[in-house]
Amino acid sequence: MANSLRGKVAIVGVGQSPTGCVPGRSPLDLTAEATLNALADANMEKAEIDGVLTGNAFASSFHRFSVALSEYLNIQPSYSNTLQVSGATAGAAVNTAAAAIHSGLADTVLVACGDSLLTGMTPDLAMRAMTESRDQQYEMPFGIPVANTFAMTAHRHMKEYGTTSEQMAQVAVTFREHASRTPGAQKTELITVDDVINSKMVSSPYRKLDCSLISDGAAALILTSAERALDYTDTPIYILGGGEYYSHEHIFLMPELTQTGAVHSAQKAYEMAGVTAADIDVAGIYDCFTGTVLMMLEDLGFCKKGESGGFVEDGHITYGGQIPTNTHGGMLSYAHPGIPAAWFHFVEVVRQLRSSCGKRQVANAELGLVHTLGAGFSTQATTILGTQSTR
Amino acid sequence: MNKAIKDVLEKPLPIPDGDSQALWDGLKNGELLLQHCDDCGHVQYYQQRICRQCQSVNLQHKAASGRGTIHSFSVVYRAPGPAFKEDVPYAVLLIDLEEGPRMISSLVGKDFDALDFDSPVKLKTIKIADEVCLPCFELVS
Q1: Is A151 on the interface with B (CB under 8 A)?
Q2: Which of B64, B66, B70, B55 is nearest to B116 (CA)?
Q3: Hey, is the C-beta of B127 within 8 angstroms of any chain A C-beta?
Q4: Cα–Cα distance measured from residue A266 to residue A296, given in angstroms and rounded to the nearest whole number
Q5: What share of chain B is helix, strand, coil (3-state, %, to 5)?
């Protein structure tokens, strides 16, 4: 791969705001707090940030969130953008930040996002805001909640591969157990498969506990070149590979409901990093719904197509299994403030690779993967992270 | 009333544009128009000026037979906002049309027990506003 950014850029700081139910705090306020915490983590002054990439916030009226955040922090970057590829924004922003640093557009990039989906909006406004990401002509008039497009893919997966509701529920059960070990997680009381199956139907086959939470919160990452990284931290976490894929916009033009563009985004990221799925020690996988995780385990190469249900039931996404996933609890149990949610997957995988996760530490974690996705599997972004700049 | 709140209380209506005017006009006459490419034979839904397969602009609108089968479906119990609260539960369908294209739609009626993969369905346009008819589907018994 010509001019690859493998090992050229590192994450040197991570930070977050309080998460869960955080009333009285604006999206900019939460994001600024996460940024200040990331700066402290990197032992860095804010003036050293010369690039800012963010997603947008539903509960904020700013169209240029990255520019508004810079003003809020009183910094004047020479590189800035507010990205919008729905749930994949986190991965796309990290990949783009790495490319900007590698190309010389910026030296040090803040990648941040925050929103107050829980207390900054009414439940109806939050639901409607997320629904409005569907096409107003060909999709929205039929009354399509966010869960619906994902539900139809999961339903088809059940039909084609015999995947069961109980297997999907196991994803929620596993991530809840992970969240119970994580300080600040929104939901920590343990649940069973029966609890998930007996929760209220939202959009069949998804029930309430198959769906991610609604939360407030923000997280921030600071990236700089591998050369500068050691000035800030003894444990830089290097970007080893990035890949994205955008296969469709409308759910009815998704090439296959049970195989997603993650196959391609992951292949590109693995190739750049020079690794395979079998090499990955810990993963952060976008978990807007339980069945989403099952399909990603297949498309990212952790198990064969159609076998994810048994893979999860056999304990392969938790400690001691093949690929401990979402050790913070994910969007299903840690927090889901909308677009910022996947930032927490990055924060967690970085902390795992730094071996700073205490009682939820995955032993000998050296290579991590974060996969973010959105809009009914329309948008896909994979990032490979590692403790060493070369492998 | 705050505009954002008002928007939430009303159902989203399609706003036809240059690409899609013919489709929405056709639906008012009970016809679901598909675009057939004169150059490569591709049949497409939704409407746009160029063929998505060969980029030709030689597209002809032809009414679909209205027959299709269910590729996947999901019954919605939690409405996407207040505008749909009185409608729940309702079934959203992904339909494979006889002519080839797939489309998203919703089921007329609430016979969810009869819904299944590959079930045959047929078009039934439903008027939702003065100038707007939606292409919905009903089960073929």
Answers
A1: yes
A2: B70
A3: no
A4: 10
A5: 15, 40, 45
Regions of chain A with pLDDT less than 50: none
Phi first, then psi: give them for residue A295, nearest 5 degrees: -65, -35
pLDDT the model gives residue A390: 84
Q: Does ipTM come in above 0.90?
A: yes
Rounded to the nearest angstrom, the gap between the alpha carbon of residue A125 and the centroid of all alpha carbons in its chain is 23
Angle, CA of A349, A116 and A147, to the nearest 5°: 75
Q: How does DSSP classify residue A257? A: T
| Nearest CB neighbour to B104, from listed A124, A139, A145 | A139
What superfamily in CATH does domain A9-121+213-386 come from?
Answer: Thiolase/Chalcone synthase (3.40.47.10)
CA distance A371 to A295: 12
B73/chain A closest Cα distance in angstroms: 5
Distance CA A355, CA A350 (A): 9
pTM: 0.97
CA distance B32 to B116: 23
pLDDT band at B1 (very low <50, low <70, confident <90, very high): very low
Q: Which residues of A touch B12 (CB under 8 A)?
A: 132, 136, 140-141
Q: Please report where in the chains the tokens 């049949």 appear, as a residue.
A: B43
A376 and A150 in contact (C-beta within 8 Å)? yes
- Residue A121 near residue A93 (C-beta atoms within 8 A): no
Query: Is there a contact between B71 and A156 if contact means CB atoms under 8 Å apart?
Result: yes
Q: What is the DSSP letter of A210?
A: G
Using an 8 Å Cβ cutoff, are A347 and A14 in contact? yes
Is residue B124 packed enough to be buried (19+ CB in 10 Å), middle (13-18) or exposed (0-12)? Answer: middle
For tokens 């498969």, name the residue: A193
Whether A234 and A85 have beta carbons less than 8 Å apart is answered as no
